[in-house]
Amino acid sequence: MSTGPTQTRRKTVTQIAKLKGERPIVSLTSYHAHTAAIVDEHADLILVGDSLGMVMHGMESTVGVPLDLMIVHGQAVVRGTKRALIVVDLPFGSYEESPSIAFRNAARVMKETGCGAIKLEGGRRMAETIHFLTERGIPVMAHTGLTPQSWNVMGGYRTQGRDEDSWPEHEADARAVADAGAFAIVLEGMVEPLAARITGQVAIPTIGIGASVHCDGQILVLEDMLGLNPHPPKFVKTFGNLGAGIEDAVRRYAEDVKSRAFPTEDQVYR
Ligand code: KIV
Description:
alpha/beta, eight-stranded parallel barrel, 11 helices, 8 strands, 39% helix, globular, binds 3-methyl-2-oxobutanoic acid
C-alpha cells in the first residue's frame, strides 16, 4: 500500500509495545488540541481519558461520560498532534454488554477521531471482548487494578492489592488481557510489589498511575501534574503550578479592565 501525502508518522502500538525492557514509556492524558500539541513533543502515547468528564465537565465520576463526548475530544487531540499514539477511552456502558457492541462503538471512535487505539477497563471479564476487537483490527489498551468506571460497586477509589490474598486475582486479570491481545495495560492505584510482579509476568508494557516506578511506563492526568487540581491524589507529582499562574493572570486582567489599563495602543486597530 502506498503512503499518501497526508499520512503522518505517528507512533504505532507495535512501537509502544517494543519499548518494554528498552526504556520507560512516557504517557499523559490530554483532552484538547492546544495542550495535546505541547504534550505531543514529549510523550509516546496520549490518552484521551474519560477522566475528562470530571476534569473538563465537572462530573462527580466517569460513569456519566457519553461516547459522543469522547469522540469530540478525541478529534481535537488527533487534530492537535502529529507523532504520539492517540488512545481514546471507551466510556462506561459502551462496551461491557457484548463484544459486538464493543466493536461497533470502538470502530466508531476510531473512524470518527482517527485515533490509533482504544482503552477499556476490566481484566478477565473483558478478555473475550479484547480478543474480538484485536482480531478485527482494533488495538486495545487494557486497564486493571483500580478501575474508576466501577466506582459504584467498589464503593469509592481504593488502592488495590493491600491484601496479599487478592494478588492472584489481579495477576490473573493482567495475564488474561495480555493473552487476549491487548498491546499494553494501565495499572491504576496498586501497591508497589503487586505492580512489580505483574510487570514481570506479562510480555506487554504496563503503564502505571499510582502503581510505582516498577511499571514499564507512567501516565498522569495532565491537569493534575500541572497543578490545576487543588486536591490531587497521593500518587501525583506536580511538575507545574498552573493553577496559581492562571489565577494571577486572571486577577491582573480584571484589574486592568477595571482601571482601563487594557486595552492599550498595542491592542487597538487604527
Ligand atoms: O481516564 C483517564 O484519564 C485514565 C487514566 C487515569 C489512566 O484512565
